[in-house]
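One-letter codes give the sequence; backbone shape is given numerically. An example follows:

. . .
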Amino acid sequence: MGAHWLLGCVLMALSGAGLQPAAPTDQQLEKAIQERFARSKIAVNHFQVRVQGGVATLTGKTDVLQHKGVATRLAKAMGAKQVVNRIEVSEAARQRATANLATGRRRAQIKRGETPRSERPVP
């Protein structure tokens, strides 16, 4: 038997005894999310993060529509059970996104050889 048997017993006990890493506290999770935000492109927005019961609530304002979604994904990746995203997107960002969609749609039509609706003759 010896040392190997004892080591095996200890390893089995530890692996099967439900000794999972403890879930982070709300305070630890909040800090982890804030630190992750600080290392990303959304740091310029200075979003606020509050965590209660594993649920992260995000607040703030942004001029980049995509930053709202990035914030949600990063918070979930850091371990939030759920994310309540109350980040407000500026009207200018909404208008830019709408214009970009229209431009992208037109480019796709031209690439496929279609005539965009705005350039079709009126019957």
User: Anything to note?
Assistant: The longest helix spans residues 91-112. Residues 22-113 form a domain with the Histidine-containing Protein; Chain: A; fold (CATH 3.30.1340.30). The first strand starts at residue 48 and ends at 52.
